[in-house]
Amino acid sequence: MKPAAFDYLRAETLDEALEAMSEFGDDAKVIAGGQSLMPMLNIRLVKPAILVDISRVVVLDYTKTNHKRFEIGGIVTQGHLAKSGALQGIVPLLAKALPHIGHFQTRNRGTVCGSLCHSDPSSEIPLCLATLGGTVVLKSKRRERTVDAQDFQIDMLTTDCRPDEIAVAASFPTSDDNTGYAFSELARRHGDFAIVALAAVATGDTIRLGVGGVAATPTVREWSGLSPADLEDALNEFAWDLGGSDDIHATARYRREIVRRMGAKVIQEASDARAQ
Description:
- The chain has eleven helices and 14 strands.
- By secondary structure, it is α+β, with helices and mostly antiparallel strands.
- The strands form four sheets. It has a five-stranded antiparallel β-sheet. It has a four-stranded antiparallel β-sheet with strand order 11-12-13-14, sandwiched between helices.
- Helix 10 runs antiparallel to helix 11 (about 250-275).
- The radius of gyration is 19 Å and the shape is globular.
- The mean pLDDT is about 95.
């Protein structure tokens, strides 16, 4: 299929893009890399009246570290971050997750904020944002606001980004001393959507585990003072709480078993990394 007819605006400035979003609202869609939006246009899952292209809005092309936060501008690509050798020391969990995202061709076009706004339950970047407790900066012609990950990702393919807003940045906490990070996922082939993705952070006697691909949004569970003997029961409880459903890729029962088995593995990896 081909997309339904639409108008196209290539914004040169952020103000121009925000003006268009204010004018068209629900009838507009923002495009930067287009790796999620273009397939949806082609199957006519979305039919915007206008696409607002922000890929040349240079003020959104940046990364910076400030006050223990790593901020990524709205048009920074996944490929750009993946090539950054410094990311491993700044946000290790994100550095571990990026190679699992699609393929280098899609990473070279797909943006970090675009992945967050698409909010696919199996996506790696939303899972990292939720597990680390990151934020998204949303801007409209009227105001700018910062939204926590758990409030931003409302449901499958649904976020708190309002019709006149653009995600202008995402912010991740930088790594802490004596903290270990681990990421793993199960997919049919490398680069496919994850059947289950898991991210773990180990700090002191606290373990935080994030799971994607099971519930409608990434889900995070934190335990303090959890003994190795209690880990199996804790993971089993978490797996059942996630719910999940059968689909063409896996059954809910299979996904629960992956959470139990791979959850234990990534927690151990994060704990080992903390001890190094």
